[in-house]
Design a protein that fits this description.
Layout lengths: L20 E9 L2 E9 L10 E7 L5 E11 L3 E8 L1 H4 L4 E13 L21 E9 L12 E3 L4 E7 L5 E6 L4 E9 L4 E9 L9 E8 L7 E3 L1 E5 L16 E8 L10 E11 L10 E4 L10 E8 L2 E9 L6 E7 L2 H18 L1 H14 L5 E8 L8 H13 L4 E6 L4 H7 L3 E3 L3 H9 E6 L14 E4 L23 H12 L4 E4 L2 H10 L5 E4 L7 H4 L3 H11 L6 E5 L8 E3 L2 E2 L7 H8 L3 E5 L18 E3 L6 H7 L2 E4 L4 H5 L6 E4 L3 H8 L6 H4 L4 E2 L2 H13 L7 H10 L7 H9 L1
Parallel strand pairs: 22-23, 22-25, 23-24, 25-26, 26-27, 27-28, 29-32, 29-34, 32-33, 34-35, 35-36
Antiparallel strand pairs: 1-2, 2-5, 3-4, 3-6, 4-5, 6-7, 6-10, 8-9, 9-10, 11-12, 12-16, 13-14, 13-17, 15-16, 17-18, 17-21, 19-20, 20-21, 30-31
GO molecular function, one term: CDP-glycerol glycerophosphotransferase activity
Organism: Fictibacillus solisalsi
InterPro entries: Glycerophosphate_synth, TagF_C, TagF_N, Teichoic_Acid_Biosynth
């Protein structure tokens, strides 16, 4: 090991226990980016140090690896250097920076009788396995945006920046200025002062554009221009790259917020910087409007005053939005009582979210498990408390009719409470005090998804895991790699096993699933192989009278056929942990033009997908039922189903209606993300298509066949996966477990 690194480190820029990897400098030189960063030393690292700098594209999940060189090493930290290729970075939009380091991990060869690792004090372990440690790169640089580089070949700007959480990321864009607010204040008289800087990496192309600052409001509010002063910011020149052509300009603007208090309704006003073509009377393609954003190293702005107006007192607030950090002025009617209520709610929320409160709650849950069991209490939960659906719903409704002696209560996410209240279904708000005591004392838990790992299961509780689908995609222990945010492959599998070890019964729809569930979930207790209770309704309500009634309930036209589109989620397309995105590749406009006279299409996205689709261009043709509680109702009213790799097609097959598979990314999904348990491309119970044109052709073929399925592949599929289901699965499951 060399002596302590001699590189100059400013105060607060060295690695610490919580900030193990921190940026030192970024320099763009001859069309490459040279990045230096510091990594906290750790005895488990392999010597010589091995690993790489990793950039992950936030939208697509694409990864770029850049090797590093250890240019200095000391007792406390390493100084590492990587060279980035801007051309590769330019193929994305936002990249997050990580450092991957190869480390040694002890491998124990001693196991106790339960198969768990057990080390004795006198044992000496000398065997290791190599693991990868992943560190998010932190930064405290205030003016990273000033290191923007313009790629001459692509005309793209690559801008490093500090995220709201103090991490390093890169933005890629074209034709866009950088504008940051350094200071934003609202004084007692209602005057708003804004100070900051801006620069345009493509300044030579924008000399003819006029700069203005504007404020926009709700519908009917005429946009207003805000006067501002500018000057060159020479103090920021040291932060700028010498070879870059742009100048850094300051701005200072003031406006009187009292002028926005005369509207009758509560209003939000947004602040923009605009670049407009002076020679063009109307909007031009070069015109730009950029929201004013607070610079990332500053804390959020939240200032307010009370102003008396003709229509009463108004509260004027200058605030930054939580995610975008864009500045807005909010004007609302003021009420002292409402303000006090808000403060109380905020205080309660802070107390609930405090680490000590959460720890106390966990301890209370464990202690409550020692209270006497409520032998007649059954707790239900579906998809993390967000829905009244799936197998738990079917079992609940059967028990409600057949076992009046039982107390049946649902565990419900706070955002979904209204659905249960409107339907008169008994519930307990998830993670409330009431929920804690009911969960801890309940005789039965019935759920279709995993519960948080910290929840302890009392000895008196029977945990009935119903799961939520027949497996096509590889699950849990069968997955080669995990691409989900907030975890890695090893951690994901270990946590899944920890959860599945609490299950007492596991529901299975068929022998095929039973074999996979036992292996993938590492489950060795009793499997209830009786079919899925949720599919009973596909037999009991598959008749013209019930279907007509369902269409009326869903407000779908009786005289049109229904196409159901129900795709699954992609592990590597996400906004963050537990929040997945979905790009709608199906061209709805093309489908509307072709089938709009005779069909409607119903969209049902996976419960993990966080999208809200704008279907206004397809009004009367496309309907979003992603948040509809019972997907079985959508099965029953549909004439054709389009899906991809979702397990919904195993359930839909019970209706013996045509379906097709829109698998535009099958190579990536099959080979990178999950992999399949059987030859899906050969034995799928319907045609596989990759484009909207092919979807249209497949639907036309279904029409010409009179919506009849004439396929040995489908017949074999039905016999393999649906043979246990006839409308009696709820009865059989309840008999077995209760």
């Amino acid at each position: 090991m060399q002596a302590e690194a001699n590189i100059q480190i400013q105060e607060g820029f060295a690695p610490t226990k919580k900030r193990k990897c921190i940026l030192h400098t970024i320099e763009f030189n001859e069309n490459v980016a040279i990045i230096k960063y510091l990594l906290k030393n750790n005895a488990i690292f392999q010597e010589p140090l091995a690993g790489h700098l990793l950039l992950i594209e936030r939208i697509t999940g694409r990864e770029l690896e850049f090797p590093f060189t250890a240019i200095e090493a000391g007792e406390k930290y390493y100084v590492l250097e990587s060279t980035l290729d801007p051309l590769e970075i330019g193929k994305g939009s936002v990249w997050d920076a990580y450092v991957i380091i190869h480390a040694k991990q002890v491998v124990s060869q001693y196991e106790n009788e339960n198969g768990e690792d057990e080390l004795k004090q006198e044992d000496t372990i000398e065997e290791y396995e190599v693991v990868e440690k992943k560190y998010r790169m932190k930064t405290k640089h205030a003016y990273l945006e000033l290191s923007t580089m313009v790629q001459p070949e692509t005309k793209q700007a690559i801008t490093p920046y500090t995220t709201n959480k103090g991490n390093l990321s890169f933005k890629v864009y074209e034709r866009r200025p950088v504008i940051k607010v350094e200071n934003a204040e609202l004084d007692k008289r209602g005057n708003v002062t804004l100070e900051g800087f801006y620069f345009f990496p493509f300044s030579s192309e924008k000399e003819g554009l006029e700069r203005t600052m504007v404020i926009g409001g709700p519908e009917g509010f005429e946009e207003r221009v805000i006067p501002f002063e500018t000057a060159e910011r020479e103090d920021l020149n040291p932060f700028n790259q010498e070879q870059q052509p742009f100048k850094i300009m300051s701005f200072m603007a003031q406006l009187d917020s009292k002028g926005f208090c005369n509207l009758d309704t509560n209003s939000t006003f947004r602040l923009y910087f605009k670049w407009e073509d002076e020679d063009s009377a109307g909007p031009d393609q070069d015109d730009l409007a950029i929201p004013l954003q607070l610079i990332s190293f500053k804390r959020r702005v939240n200032q307010s005053i009370i102003i008396s107006t003709v229509s009463g007192k108004k509260k004027v607030s200058l605030v930054t939005r939580k995610k975008t950090r864009s500045l807005v002025i909010k004007v609302v009617q003021y009420s002292l009582l409402q303000e006090l209520k808000k403060k109380v709610r905020r205080t309660v929320a802070k107390v609930k979210q405090h680490k000590k409160t959460k720890k106390a709650y966990m301890v209370a849950f464990k202690l409550a498990g020692y209270l006497p069991v409520k032998k007649n209490l059954v707790m239900f939960e579906s998809f993390l408390g967000k829905q009244y659906s799936c197998n738990p719903r079917a079992i609940y409704e059967y028990l409600k009719e057949s076992r009046p002696d039982l107390e049946l209560v649902w565990s419900v996410d706070g955002r979904s409470i209204s659905k249960f209240e409107d339907a008169g279904i008994p519930y307990a708000k998830r993670f409330s005090v009431k929920w804690l005591f009911k969960m801890a004392r309940a005789r039965y838990w019935v759920t279709n998804s995993r519960m948080p790992l910290w929840i302890p299961k009392a000895k008196h509780t029977v945990y009935f895991q119903t799961w939520h689908g027949t497996p096509l995609k590889r699950l849990a222990a069968d997955m080669d790699e995990v691409h989900m945010p907030g975890t890695n492959t090893k951690k994901y599998k270990a946590n899944f096993h920890k959860e599945s070890s609490k299950w007492d019964y596991l529901l299975s729809p068929n022998a095929y699933s039973t074999e996979i569930f036992r292996r993938a979930f590492n489950f060795h207790k009793e499997v209830v192989e009786v079919g899925y209770p949720r599919n009973d309704v596909l037999y009991t309500k598959n008749n013209p009278s019930d279907i007509k009634e369902l269409k009326e309930k869903l407000q779908l036209p009786q005289d049109k056929k229904v196409i159901l589109y129900a795709p699954t989620w992609r592990d590597d397309q996400f906004y963050g942990k537990g929040r997945y995105k979905f790009d709608l590749e199906l061209d709805l406009l093309q489908l509307k033009d072709k089938f709009g006279e005779d069909y409607v299409i119903v969209l049902r996205m996976h419960y993990l997908v966080a999208e809200n689709f704008d279907l206004s261009p397809y009004e009367g043709f496309a309907f979003d039922f992603s948040y509809h509680g019972d997907i079985n109702e959508l099965y029953l009213v549909s004439d054709i189903m389009i899906t991809d790799y979702s397990s919904v097609f195993f359930d839909y097959a019970n209706l013996k209606r045509p379906m097709l598979f829109f698998v535009y990314d099958i190579e990536s999904y099959r080979d990178k993300l999950r992999g399949f348990y059987f030859d899906f491309e050969t034995y799928a119970p319907g045609p596989l298509v990759k484009t909207t044109d092919e979807v249209i052709s497949a639907i036309e073929k279904i029409e010409s066949d009179g919506f009849e399925i004439q396929s040995e592949i489908f017949d074999d599929f039905y016999e393999r996966f649906c043979y246990l289901e006839s409308g009696q699965s709820s009865h059989k499951a309840v008999q077995k477990v209760f």
